[in-house]
Amino acid sequence: MKFKLFLPAIAATFLFSCNNNKKTDDQSIDIKGTWQLITGTTITKGVSVVTDYTKNQEFLKIRNDSHFAFFTHKLNTPKDSTNHFDAGGGSYSLVGNKYTEHLDFYSDKNWEGKSFDFTVSFKNDTLIQTGLEKVEKENINRTIIEKYVKVK
User: Fold this and answer.
1) CA 134 – CA 44 distance, rounded (Å)
2) End-to-end distance of the chain based on CA atoms, in angstroms?
3) What is the 3-state secondary structure (H, E, C) of 69-114?
4) What is the pLDDT of residue 18?
5) 90, 146, 138: which is closest to 118 by C-alpha?
6) Alpha-carbon span 107 to 103, nearest angstrom
7) Other CB atoms within 10 Å distance of the CB of residue 51
8) Nearest-angstrom CA–CA distance, 76 and 73
9) Contacts of 72 (CB under 8 A, 6+ apart)
10) Tens of pLDDT along 16-66?
11) Separation CA 116–CA 91 (nearest Å)
12) What is the dihedral of CA 39, 51, 144, 111, to 10 degrees?
């Protein structure tokens, strides 16, 4: 009789301990930190354009637990007001590999208040962010694929 009660207790303990040690999707994807954009691909009406962000410009995206900020600037420009600098930011959410940016601040007000949905994944040390970028006021409707490496 003791054996019949002991066996279910061991099974329950085993199952409970397995569930507590299981990593969730949220824990397996860590996008916090400072990331440098290496390449960006835009696909508009089937036409792909790849931008190399390591030549003549620099683009960084910084994420903490709840917010992101990005900025880009041209390299080797005059040290006057002609140097172009672009920045924005807002809050974000990450559930599994589904990442949504809520753009609260941006130099072009037509983009503010928009949310952008992405899928994030890793290939080696590269964070790949893929999604649809749609801003009706700017007549933009395209797929974007961004590849980032973490700044050490």
Assistant:
1) 11
2) 61
3) EEEEEECCCCCCCCCCEEEEEEEEEEECCEEEEEEEEECCHHHCCE
4) 40
5) 146
6) 11
7) 15
8) 10
9) 37, 53, 57, 58, 59, 60, 85, 86, 87
10) 334 333 333 444 689 999 999 999 999 998 999 999 999 988 999 999 999
11) 11
12) 110
Strand partners, 149: 36, 126
Q: Which of 6-10, 83-87, 99-103 has the lowest mean pLDDT?
A: 6-10
What is the residue whose two structure tokens read 């130099």? 107
pTM equals: 0.76
Tokens representing residue 138 in the block: 């700017």
Are 74 and 67 within 8 A, CB to CB? no
